[in-house]
Sequence to fold (617 residues):
Amino acid sequence: MNPVRPLINHRLSGRSNGVNPIFQLDAKVIEQAKVAEESFILSLEAPSIAKTIQPGQFVQIRCIPRYDPLLPRPFSIYRVREKRILDILYEVVGRGTRMLSETRKGDVVNLFGPLGVTFSYPRPKHLSILVGGGVGLAPFYDLAEALIDPKRGKQRKEDVIILLGARNKNRVFCEKDFRRLGVHFEVATDDGSYGFKGLVTELLAKHLRATRDERRTTQLYACGPRLMLRKVSELSKKFKIPCELSIDAHMPCGYGICFGCAVKVQTKDQRPKTQDPQGKGSENHFFYKLACVDGPVFDAKEIVWD
Amino acid sequence: MSWVFSLMSNVDLSVQVGPLKLKNPVMVASGTASYGEEQSRVFPLNRLGAFVTKSITLKPRQGNPPYRVLETPSGMLNSIGLQNVGVDEFLRKKLPFLRKEKVPVIVNIAAKRIEDYATLTARLSGAKGISGFELNVSCPNVKEGGLEFGTNPKCITEIVRRVRRETRLPVITKLSPNVTNIVTMAKAAMEGGSDAVSLVNTFLAMAVDVQRRRPVLSTVTGGLSGPAIKPIALRMIWQVYRALKCPIVGIGGIMNAEDAIEMMMVGSSAIQVGTANFVNPKAPLEILGGLQAYAKRERLQRLSDIVGVVA
Fold:
């Protein structure tokens, strides 16, 4: 039998509720710390955003003032400290992130947020498994902290499991932070140089088999490369476990005005039929949501993978 | 935001775009501010001279598959595919919101058939709270209509003429730069009865994913926008203004007040801020503040005095 849907809706932002203010400010860099190969934690002073942002939401960051690279980049929040500091865990993948990695204490970057919708919390006494592929781990410290908070997620520390997938041991980061938090933390490396040898989704499958045998009601969360998310989504279907995915996309504006970050989702029956974009007039069983305002957090069941 | 108000002065920022009088020349470009709900969380929309909606079509459209966007040097490529809610939902849900914001609303319309432009105009011109129309005859990212209309002067004239019959409100025709002679297209629009032309829409362009050996955008080609296109936009506006002296709304890579001033100097009566909205959500306000400061510094009585001084 399908477990009772345990999600409590904590979605605060998004298109349907356009009342929360979005802040735009020049934030001072407090620290730039290298945490692994090509991976950094950037600490920014931004009290207005730090006070309001919720697990799963993101900010747009732009190095100012220049027009090349032109667009801001979206980042998850790794951790909020002292209600005024945002820690951003990121990996250098292109020109924008390279430039960000070159900012130093005292520099200023432009911040825009909080943006997007939040993760949901399961009912108490669930098992929560958070799967991060590489820098996809980014939103999960903040979520783990919220999950074990007696006022928010109301979960027990031992019921929160973090699985990190990394290429090799040089790309493993933030283990200490999670251990200090008191949650369960495991690593899978592609080459077996640290922790479990293999893909993080294989490690996840192992955990899911165990929880099925123990008849635990479980909630999955995942963030990472598309192929990993697809695999996690398949596993959640196979084990009949609810799963929320944080989806990354090319996101020029981050707040629903450019329609650039389309994510293909299944049409529910009650939805109005939309016209075929190419004018064939056929009725489709999918439509596009926007990763920035309808997401970045999506129910794995609604995503169309192709 | 107090700095914005502190800049207020006696300078007359109002502009006239054909019959359309605006309190200032700064608009947001179609498709870069959706229907206003999101942007209103960042600044009050009634600070704008006018708000131009995302293109509205008769039926809702779900748009193109991903990837729809890509950053390029000092610019971006997009191929959204006119995703929009359709005219019915626009009238039911989106227009009432904009009406509450008390900002002049220019509705951008797009269609696949010439008669649909007329039908859309007729449906919309009955509604309260619309100050004018902008005709999208130049979308590069839909298979039928779109760019085809925008590159054929006879089609442009015919579309404007049919729309003209349905409304007394100001009509602006938004032109494609993907043509051999932009003046011919502007002339065609004005001959059909357009009150002004807005130029330019995006430039047809593409990018290749070398790793996967295929185009980045799902539709192969898309429209290029941003600072990269500004010099070409300026040249085209200058050409049209010199030849026709018709009212022009300047668009194309405007990021700051200086860019806007350039656009006005070559003949734009008003300007639209597009891609800059993605880069800096407060760009329209900052540009407005900059224009005010400029007019004061230059001791202009009216900002509109600079329109066409370089043409």
Q: What stands out?
A: Chain A touches chain B through 41 residues (CB under 8 Å). Confidence is low (pLDDT under 50) at residues 1-18, 275-282 of chain A. The longest strand of chain A covers residues 23-36.
